[in-house]
């Protein structure tokens, strides 16, 4: 009976453990330009084929770095297809994600220069490629931690006139909801862009997958740095297990803490300097584990941590603060930097030498507010019915990133609702054709609409009269026919109306004509 009871308890425990086990995180990896799904060594992760996410042209790829996934294709976006091109990916569960994009080079003779372009995620600019990026392993990709809240993700590439954007892969990897929490400013309105991630005391670059890291960590890439400078420090390593390494919410790989650098007698300070963008906030994460055999107890190694000369942590005793040797300790601080360099200094106070296992630096970016979804849909309908030329692009969000608004669209930010709205459309003489859709009435904040000098045909939609914010309406020199809708008389804010050069018939609506005669300019001719 006792044996049966124990067996029942074991089975109950296993059942409870299984039911409460955390499910695997959502992971979407796209091999850009690929026509079929594939798996790549050494970890054999699954890459999905590139189908129906975007425009552009698939081509064979040249990998700029050995850290680039071993994929053979890419997708590039000629400027003739427009300055903004986006991957729109649906069915992404609501959550916190690491989004990573690897850049590539088109394997064709006429593509002999590295392209320079900007990258945005959900309308927020996260990265600008700089000249020489192909020569630096940690610049061949962009990565950011983003909250995705509406079941989709939009990843856009913005041409800057220096070559066609070319993308080898996109990864959308779910991480813990509280990953990289850094204080009260952290939250759904903040994006953390990876600026640098270093594993110290080793020359072997690794991804979390290579480390057999927890999948909830997001498969981070750790750039190796064996030393900070000649005679500046010495490497340390161990094969001993590290306690508290892979804990929630960041789930760091244990191997990160099995190597380190230790300062020397000739240079007691341990210092690392990197370039940063000025006038930005940075979240800095420092990793420690006492793996030096010469340190056997608390109090034998104590140091301060300085950022650009300012002390941010005092009396760091890794053994004491982590609870033991071979135990992980993570320290985080967020600083505002005005200059173009970030220097992290560990200054010994007891024991003469400092130790450091890893560094992570993130730029803190305020997520952009988006354009009203209804108005975006209205513009997309307008793009389709007017046959907007490809060179306009009109992909992604019309108003953000603010550095790359849609050509011809003027935007206004409404603080009360934290949304962008369209208050002007200036598309005169752009070879537009087709007709005006009723959806144009959904641009509720439109003040100026200029579509003159095109080949638009059909009737003026009566729904245009519901856009009561309109002050300027210019539809001259098109092929519009029919009569002027009576509803235009409801446009009480209208100051200028030009309908010349069309095939309109009938009479001017009394409400419209009577009011226009009292001061507003009117160029309609029967």
Key traits:
526 residues; mainly beta; 13-stranded mixed sheet; six-stranded mixed sheet; 36 strands; 8% helix; 38% strand; elongated; disordered N terminus
> What share of the residues lie within helices?
under 10%
N-end to C-end Cα span: 102 Å
Mean pLDDT: 92
Shape type: elongated
Radius of gyration: 29 Å
Quick one: biggest sheet?
13 strands, mixed
Can you give a write-up of this model?
With 526 residues, the chain is mostly beta strands. Helix content is 8%, strand content 38%. The protein contains four helices and 36 strands. Strands 1, 4, 5, 7, 8, 11, 13, 14, 15, 16, 20, 23 and 26 form a 13-stranded mixed β-sheet that branches. Strands 27-28-30-32-34-36 form a six-stranded mixed β-sheet, with no helix packed on it. It has a four-stranded antiparallel β-sheet with strand order 6-12-9-10, with no helix packed on it. A hairpin with a 4-residue loop joins strand 27 and strand 28. It starts with a helix and ends with a strand.
Question: Could you provide a short overview of the structure?
Answer:
The protein is mainly beta. The protein has helices at 2-20, 318-322, 373-385, 510-516; strands at residues 27-31, 38-40, 45-47, 57-62, 73-76, 84-90, 95-103, 105-106, 116-121, 124-128, 141-148, 152-162, 166-175, 190-200, 206-207, 221-225, 233-237, 259-263, 270-275, 280-288, 302-307, 310-316, 329-337, 341-350, 355-356, 358-366, 409-414, 419-426, 433-434, 448-450, 455-458, 472-474, 479-482, 496-498, 503-504, 521-522. Strands 1, 4, 5, 7, 8, 11, 13, 14, 15, 16, 20, 23 and 26 form a 13-stranded mixed sheet that branches. A 6-stranded mixed sheet has the order 27-28-30-32-34-36, with no helix packed on it.
